[in-house]
Amino acid sequence: MTRCLSRWIAAALLWATMTPAAGAETLAATIEQWGLLGSWAVDCAAKPDRDKGALLSYEIRKDGRVMYRRNFGDAKDENEVVSATVSADGLLNVMVYFPSLHQAREFGLAHLKDGSLRAIYNRSERGEYTIRDGKYVATGAPTPPQQRCD
């Protein structure tokens, strides 16, 4: 019985150590297959600026983690993508944890026919939207398309 229990524990430990890597591979594969890797901006020629447009980058680290970098010109940060799924209509649903904000945010991105992408929604983990139905909640203005910069 002890031998059987030891084998079960060893198998459970092996499964537990392999599961995060498999999840990271799935996350990285989703991001890569959807075409999100690289840098994106409303205007790639413009210097990053908080009010005029940030440079947003997605990369896969050697350890398999997917990172989301934001460059606002005067400030930069790097945050981990914790999940990404593609819905039936092709929308990429991404969740990023922002330690500096002490919260996770979820946003949905859509591919446009010209290869650009557009934010369709952005909400906090509490369900508070800054973008809903492709429009900024505060102003009602549509979100601009973002071009690949690299």
Q: Specify the structural class.
A: alpha+beta
Could you give the order of the helices and strands?
HEEEEEEEEEE
Strand content: 35-45%
Give the overall shape. Answer: globular
Q: Report mean pLDDT, rounded to a whole number.
A: 86
The number of helical runs is: 1
First-residue to last-residue Cα separation: 59 Å
* Overall helicity: 10-25%
- With strands numbered from the N-terminus, the spatial order across the biggest sheet is 9-8-7-6-5-4-3-2-1-10
DSSP, total strands: 10
Major sheet, described briefly? 10 strands, antiparallel
Q: Rg to the nearest angstrom?
A: 19 Å
Low-confidence stretches: 2-24
Could you characterize the architecture of this molecule?
This protein is of the alpha+beta class and 150 residues long. The chain is 22% helix and 39% strand. The protein has a 10-stranded antiparallel sheet with strand order 9-8-7-6-5-4-3-2-1-10. The chain starts with a helix and ends with a strand.
Keywords:
1 helix, 10-stranded antiparallel β-sheet, 150 residues, alpha+beta, disordered N terminus, 22% helix
Summary of the model, kept short:
The chain is an alpha+beta fold. It is 22% helix and 39% strand. It has one helix and ten strands.
List the helices and strands and how they pair.
Elements: H1 2-34, E1 38-41, E2 55-60, E3 66-71, E4 76-86, E5 92-98, E6 103-111, E7 117-124, E8 129-132, E9 135-136, E10 147-148
